[in-house]
Amino acid sequence: MARRAFQRLIANPDQTEHVFVVIRALSGRSFQRLMRRVRRDPEGARIVTERRNLIPVLSDSDALRALPFGSLGHHYQRFIESEQISAAGLEAASLAVREARESMPRVRELEEEAFGARLRDMHDLWHVVTGYSRDVLGELALLAFTYEQTREPGIGYIVRKVERRMRKGGNAEISDFLRAASERGSAAAFLPAADWESLLELPLEDVRRELRVGAPVVYQERRTPAGEAAASARA
Prior knowledge:
This protein has 16 helices and no strands. It is mostly helical. The chain is globular, with a radius of gyration of 17 Å.
């Protein structure tokens, strides 16, 4: 299942649902290990207990636009508008995979289900905080960063496979780029346990310092044909 989903992802990198298929197929006990780490963090434990839902917060465009200029929330709203995406869109891609697996038994408790959704919904916030865009290289770098944060085998699988393909295609510099992204992920604070609701109001540079993600990396974006067309339409 993971191999087929990966092949489909390579054929069309803009179809996010294939990422979720790979992650689910290879997850093993990784999510339970992540949950144990989150629960050991005081802030993370509180968030898990409260079953926090990021979707209503990240979908309230008016509230985000009203936040101070330069705040994380302000930058996030600009990001999703420029990319023509939404927090609900990522949720829909994830749920499409779940619907295809309805016959599988549910083994996670309610807190874990809620936190799994929250972890998914952080993704575009991580784009903004790290400075990686939604192009092919930016998504791959963010996955390398995310793997160091979560140790999710499916994410590591995607990064390794794509890196190998790109190196064979003559893109030897990809290894250094991804190594730097991995090092940022290792050096950063534990982002899954962060109180994102509170961080939205803070200046983005302050959030980057607090979370120890470092300065954004300048790189040449590479977009798929569909991504290029979307970017041209936004221009």
